[in-house]
Design a protein that fits this description.
Mean pLDDT: 87
CATH topology of the largest domain: Rossmann fold
CATH class of the largest domain: Alpha Beta
Shape: globular
Length: about 350
């Protein structure tokens, strides 16, 4: 969000980069990377056999490009054309039952034979089964860590198979080791790449339910395989069905669910959040910055409401919010909402 705010506010990448040190100097919360750092990362990615994809480029996955805003940069390792086919995500329990594993294999293999690309997160259990069953037809693994971080380590062989026959994607920097906070971001990309997500054996409070929520936020189809009410591994997926998720038993149900909705690849991207810019040399009074800070609370609110409360223009509020986010004070959400960072 901050990346695109800066571009829209300062119009060009050069002007935005020139403004970052001044915007963050008041708190030292962020230190811009040097050109040497950037060139080193590009070199390491290239030597590894991977490539960088920017959201403005033609090779960038088309459904992800429709986000408002999309992930600015991805690292890709493998066949990027797989992300330009119809994609379906399959996710579920790490400690999956034998029945759940078989269902994941059967659905993934059949959809793969129907020219769908299967997307998942390379986790143990359902994810691994879905990837392995769709290697011949095409599969995408989205990683929480950098493109070179194989996690879990038990999937080292599967990682190599996907690198050679499928596609690995990561939003994290090269060399980054995944932490817990990286996986919700990974899930957002898994569902964003796909027309819909199939949930197989999701317990209450599982990561798969996070995927279901992000899929709904992205206007993707949410499908779930029903499970025994006596099995806690199916408590979350059964709850999704009660809340209106599409019940699927096999691949044909998945195809039927997708064919009943408007193809999302035909939708137009949303317009940019901010259109008005400011001169990057213009100084903002401390009183205005303090007013915007005071107007924020833990509850997300639109910039228009912040501007109304502070009597400061929307463009200037947007610039101040960029500064506050760089300082770690504010947090921005999709749709142009902001809150205090807590």
């Amino acid at each position: 969000m901050t990346f695109f705010k800066l571009l829209e506010q300062y119009k060009t990448p050069s002007a935005a980069l020139a403004a970052v040190p001044r915007l963050s100097a008041r708190t030292s919360a962020i230190k811009p990377k040097s050109i040497d750092d950037a060139e080193r990362e590009i070199r390491l990615i290239s030597e590894y056999g991977a490539t960088l994809l920017c959201s403005c480029e033609d090779d960038f996955p088309p459904l992800l490009k429709q986000f408002s805003p999309p992930p600015p940069v991805l690292t890709a390792y493998g066949d990027i054309t797989l992300a330009h086919r119809r994609c379906i995500a399959i996710v579920g329990a790490r400690q999956a039952s034998a029945a759940g594993r078989k269902i994941a294999r059967d659905i993934a293999a059949t959809l793969s034979n129907k020219n769908f690309t299967i997307v998942s997160g390379l986790a143990r259990g359902i994810d691994g089964e879905a990837h392995a069953a769709s290697l011949d037809g095409g599969t995408i693994a989205v990683l929480g860590g950098g493109i070179d971080h194989i996690y879990p380590p038990q999937h080292a062989r599967l990682y190599e198979q996907i690198a050679n026959r499928g596609l690995l994607l990561s939003e994290s920097p090269f060399g980054h080791r995944a932490t817990a906070r990286d996986f919700p971001r990974r899930n957002r990309i898994i569902t964003g790449l796909s027309e819909g997500v199939v949930i197989i054996e999701a317990a209450e409070r599982s990561g798969s339910l996070i995927s279901a929520r992000t899929a709904l936020e992205q206007n993707r189809e949410v499908m779930a395989v029903p499970g025994s009410p006596l099995d806690p591994r199916s408590a979350g997926s059964n709850r999704l069905l009660r809340q209106g998720a599409t019940l699927v038993r096999h691949a044909d149900d998945v195809v039927a669910a997708l064919e009943s909705i408007v193809p999302r690849r035909l939708q137009s991207p949303e317009p940019p959040l901010y259109k008005d810019g400011l001169d990057s040399t213009e100084e903002i009074p401390k009183s205005q910055r303090d007013s915007v800070h005071s107007a924020l609370s833990p509850t997300p609110i639109s910039i228009a409401d912040i501007a109304h409360a502070t009597r400061i223009s929307v463009p200037r509020c947007a610039t101040i919010l960029v500064e506050l986010e760089l300082a770690g004070i504010a947090r921005t959400y999709a749709g142009g909402l902001d809150s205090l960072a807590i």
